[in-house]
Specification:
Elements: E1 2-4, E2 10-16, H1 22-28, H2 34-46, E3 50-53, E4 63-66, H3 68-81, E5 89-92, H4 99-110, E6 114-117, E7 133-136, H5 138-143, H6 145-148, E8 153-156, H7 163-166, E9 173-179, E10 186-191, E11 198-200, E12 204-208, E13 213-218, E14 223-235, E15 239-245, E16 249-252, E17 255-258, H8 259-269, E18 274-281, E19 285-293, H9 298-305, E20 316-320, H10 337-342, E21 346-350
Parallel strand pairs: 5-6, 5-7, 7-8, 8-9, 19-20
Antiparallel strand pairs: 1-2, 2-6, 3-4, 9-10, 10-11, 11-15, 12-13, 13-14, 14-15, 16-17, 18-19, 20-21
């Protein structure tokens, strides 16, 4: 059941939930994720609640608990909406510590699917094989298009999709999802490259406030008017078009970078004046870019950036004479190439 690249390190773990020996497979496997999956399913069977941790898109990551009954109801409506067949194949390529990865396991378990478990990475393992059902990040979809088009149904979530992905002619079923840890899983889907509007899953309806920020009501999870920081254009109670974030977060391939926290850490290390902003990126949807005032020491900036987590480090650095502002005088948190031209920004260096 477990294929290996050596005698000790499994490359892919295969769990067939339609058979009775899945617990034995997990308990005996040397695969690094086997123990995590075993504990997750043990909690499912023995606990009254399962803990999930938000990724930080609406503030600091926090713990949110759901009952096994709520998890099952959420998983079943996704499988029903997408017409996923029981005892098919699925793959786990997302980190198990976040909601997306956990829900892959729960859906496979509930529908008695054969689950192929791989190391979470942007670039898939050479051992990866196409499956009936898989969930990926935008960066993974971009990096593995050649193999993902052979999968029957692909869910892509965790962030915005690039224009390149939007313009792709997908021969299979690829759905861009919308959701958050507070809603346990996605609450809306749209066919990538075909539809611009997200459509609610069963039991969900939408509304907006005076700032066009989305509010979510979910009968299945007993959620009423959950506020978000996503600006949308609403069409009835069941559809919306996503316009962007209303808060200071850069979503780079599913990694949420809190701009205020990033800049506060910078200020504690140096007096060099900077602004961290987001820009569109072909592979990751958005990328962090550093704007610097004055004539800074490039070597010092390089050293300071190394104090940040790897996926939080900007790859492009520009000098500017003025900070970018909106027409109303507010600071811009997201720039486009034309904004760089208007600022007469000079690139210092790129990594």
């Amino acid at each position: 059941m477990v294929k290996t690249i050596s005698k000790d390190i499994p490359q892919v773990l295969i769990i067939d939930f339609s058979k009775d020996d899945w617990e034995k497979i997990l308990s005996q496997s040397a695969h690094p994720m086997a123990g995590e999956i075993f504990r997750l399913l043990n909690d499912w069977e023995q606990s009254s609640k399962i803990s999930f941790f938000s990724s930080g898109s609406t503030g600091n990551p926090r713990q949110i608990d759901f009952s096994p009954q709520q998890i099952k109801a959420s998983a079943l409506r996704t499988l029903k909406m997408l017409d996923i067949k029981k005892e098919g194949t699925a793959a786990l390529v997302l980190p198990l510590q976040f909601t997306g990865g956990k829900m892959v396991v729960f859906r496979a378990f509930i529908f008695k699917m054969k689950l192929f478990v791989y190391e979470s990475s942007i670039h898939f393992s050479k051992a990866f094989k196409p499956v009936d059902f898989i969930s990926v990040s935008p960066a993974q979809l971009s990096a593995n298009k050649d193999v993902l088009i052979k999968c029957h149904t692909v869910l892509v979530g965790g962030g915005a999709t690039s224009k390149l992905l939007e313009n792709e002619k997908w021969p299979n079923r690829v759905y861009h999802t919308f959701g958050m840890t507070e809603t346990l899983s996605h609450v809306a889907l749209r066919r990538l490259g075909v539809e611009n509007w997200f459509t609610a899953v069963e039991g969900v309806r939408f509304s907006t406030d005076e700032q066009n920020k989305l509010h979510i009501t979910d009968e299945v999870l007993d959620i009423y008017q959950l506020p978000t920081n996503d600006r949308v254009e609403l069409q009835g109670e069941n559809q919306f078009q996503w316009l962007g974030r209303a808060d200071a977060v850069i979503n780079s391939g599913g990694v949420k970078i809190q701009i205020v926290d990033w800049e506060e850490k910078w200020k504690k290390m140096t007096d060099i004046q900077i602004k961290l902003v987001g820009m569109p990126d072909v592979q990751f949807g958005e990328k962090p870019v550093l704007l610097v005032k004055g004539d800074p020491d490039q070597n010092e900036i390089r050293k300071l950036v190394e104090f940040f987590p790897r996926h939080h480090r900007p790859n492009f650095f520009y000098t500017v004479s003025d900070w970018p502002q909106t027409s109303s005088g507010k600071s811009k948190l997201f720039l486009y190439p034309e904004d760089i031209s208007e600022l007469a920004a000079t690139i210092i260096f790129e990594k």
